[in-house]
């Protein structure tokens, strides 16, 4: 029997399925959902998760984002060897390959923000985008 994961604003069936995907992590998932708030609310600008390796941090976050169908981009800091690669992955995940192709050869943070801001009106979201 899986413990109940409840939060206003989210489909109870999706929450149940998410809870089934991460047994013994429902408490942590509930805490994370309370920090994220309801889908149409603004959430904290950043949340820092820490803990020992292989304890389920990425699994809990990834499962919630995927199962609740929240707009997100997942980036592994180990795999991204440059800022440009990280910017490309984020733009590709949130807006598609056309947005990523707008980056210059050696993009800066200001290039990324400029393109992100250009793409937001073309692809409006009615909820927070998570990176």
Strand tally, please?
A: 0
As an assembly, this protein is single chain
Enumerate how many helices there are, as a single number: 6
Major pleated sheet: none
Q: For the terminal residues, how far apart are their CA atoms?
A: 32 Å
Q: Write down the Rg.
A: 16 Å
Classify the helix fraction into a percent range. Answer: 40-55%
Poorly predicted spans: none
The assigned structural class equals mainly alpha
Summarize the structure in words.
With 131 residues, the chain is mainly alpha-helical. The chain is globular, with a radius of gyration of 16 Å. It starts with 11 loop residues before the first helix and ends in a 9-residue tail after the last helix. It contains 6 helices and no strands.
Short structural description:
Helices cover 48% and strands 0% of the residues. It is mostly helical and 131 residues long. α4 runs parallel beside α6.
List key phrases describing it.
6 helices, 131 residues, mainly alpha
List the helices and strands and how they pair.
Elements: H1 12-21, H2 26-36, H3 57-67, H4 83-95, H5 97-100, H6 109-122
Helix pairs in contact: 4-6
């Amino acid at each position: 029997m899986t413990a109940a994961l409840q939060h206003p604003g989210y489909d109870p069936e999706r929450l149940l399925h998410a809870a089934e995907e991460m047994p013994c992590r429902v408490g942590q998932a509930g805490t994370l959902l309370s920090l994220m708030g309801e889908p149409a609310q603004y959430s904290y600008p950043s949340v820092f998760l820490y803990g020992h390796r292989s304890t389920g941090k990425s699994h809990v976050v990834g499962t919630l984002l995927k199962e609740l169908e929240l707009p997100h981009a997942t980036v592994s800091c180990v795999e991204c060897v440059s800022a440009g690669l990280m910017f490309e992955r984020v733009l590709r995940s949130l807006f598609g390959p056309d947005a990523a192709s707008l980056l210059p050869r050696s993009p800066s943070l200001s290039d990324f923000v400029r393109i992100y801001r250009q793409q937001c009106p073309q692809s409006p979201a009615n909820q927070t985008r998570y990176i």
